[in-house]
Design a protein that fits this description.
The chain is of the alpha/beta class. The protein is built from eight helices and seven strands. α1 packs parallel to α2. The longest helix is centred in the last third of the chain and has 97 residues.
Length: about 350
């Protein structure tokens, strides 16, 4: 099943913090559901329903999404465990079918106008002495302080608002809080339990609100209070990775500084090239102006040459006309007689 962010899937790569948050809720209620008939509403991938089945007499997980239900059926199997598709505002079960209804991180995913109908359905399928265990994030801590908006949440509750809403349906409501706190473990690794030592007795507001609700006496909340450990050391692995990343950041910062130095050098080169470009553009402008002047001068010379060529053509035509006239005179009889007279004159009366 593909992880979309709406339903938690174990080992989907979200990290130890989110996985422990989800697992703790189910593990913490195993004792109070022991030997009971349990309904897990919006059971999602089915991992939590299977955890409840380890202690309960019989457990059914229901979810509105067919693919999610199919995934749960294929991955978690037990004789006292079932999964079915169904809407939380129309639960497909007879009245008073269950001793316990569990619904973790569900109500914030449905429209505000369906919250009352959802609780009415929970009361319908619960036995008279049954109880509901329900959780939701505290809007003030989860969203406002973190300046975070979960795209899948349609209605989130403030702590007092959630308590007041549940008391409209149940006479008894015990509100617990789930939070993360810095802790160190001192043990021989063989003990089944450890003492919980607190530096202060002041209460710590929880990121998530877990409520036990019923119309009759409720189980002792001490049976739900718990501390969950990251037994695989994933948190320490994350810390180690953060240390490694800090070293990588220092190295990357050095590389970035070198890059900035290179960028500044390139900027200086670019500035120098821009100055040279401006100078070249000025020289080009001067040469273009000279070229324009030369072009005008050449045009004038071309015009003068054309005029002179015209005059030369006219002169050549005149010379040709005179030559033709001379040739005609030379060919006449009178000119030949005159030539003979000039010849006799030069003989008789030389200069």
């Amino acid at each position: 099943m593909e992880f979309t962010g709406e339903r938690f899937i174990p080992d989907c790569g979200l990290g130890a913090e989110i996985e422990l948050e989800h697992l703790q809720r189910y593990l913490s209620v195993q004792d109070i559901v022991a030997g009971k008939r349990v309904l897990d509403v919006a059971s999602g991938a089915g991992y939590g329903t299977a955890l409840l089945a380890e202690r309960a007499a019989w457990v059914c997980g229901t979810d509105i999404d067919y693919e999610t239900v199919a995934f749960a059926k294929n991955n978690y199997k037990a004789k006292n465990l079932e999964y079915c598709q169904g809407s939380l505002v129309a639960l497909p079960f007879p009245t008073a079918s269950f001793d316990v209804v569990v619904s973790f991180e569900t109500i914030e995913h449905i429209p505000d106008n369906l919250h009352k109908k959802f609780l009415d359905e929970v009361i319908r399928v619960l036995a008279p002495d049954g109880f509901l265990v329900i959780s939701t994030p505290d809007k003030h801590i989860y969203s406002e302080l973190a300046d975070y908006k979960n795209e899948f949440h349609l209605k989130e509750y403030y702590r007092q608002e959630f308590n007041d809403f549940l008391r409209q349906f149940f006479h008894n409501v015990t509100l617990l809080e789930q939070f993360q706190e810095l802790a160190y473990t001192l043990t021989d690794s063989k003990a089944d339990c450890c003492r919980v030592l607190r530096r202060t007795s002041s209460s710590i507001p929880g990121k998530y609100l877990i409520a036990i609700c019923g119309r009759q006496e409720l189980p002792d909340s001490a049976g739900i209070s718990s501390i969950i450990f990251d037994t695989e050391g994933r948190y320490q692995q994350k810390v180690n990775r953060v240390v490694e990343l800090q070293g990588e950041i220092v190295e990357k910062n050095g590389n970035i500084a070198d890059c900035w130095s290179m960028i500044h050098e390139r900027d200086d080169i670019i500035k120098h090239m821009k100055v040279r470009q401006e100078q070249n553009e000025q020289q080009i402008a001067i040469l273009e102006e000279k070229l324009a002047d030369s072009t005008v001068g050449l045009a004038k010379k071309d015009a003068e040459i054309y005029r002179l060529q015209g005059q030369l053509s006219e002169s050549l035509e005149k010379v040709q006309t005179i030559s033709s006239s001379l040739d005609h005179i030379n060919s006449t009889r009178a000119w030949k007689i005159i030539q003979k007279i000039y010849w006799l004159k030069n003989k008789l009366w030389p200069l």
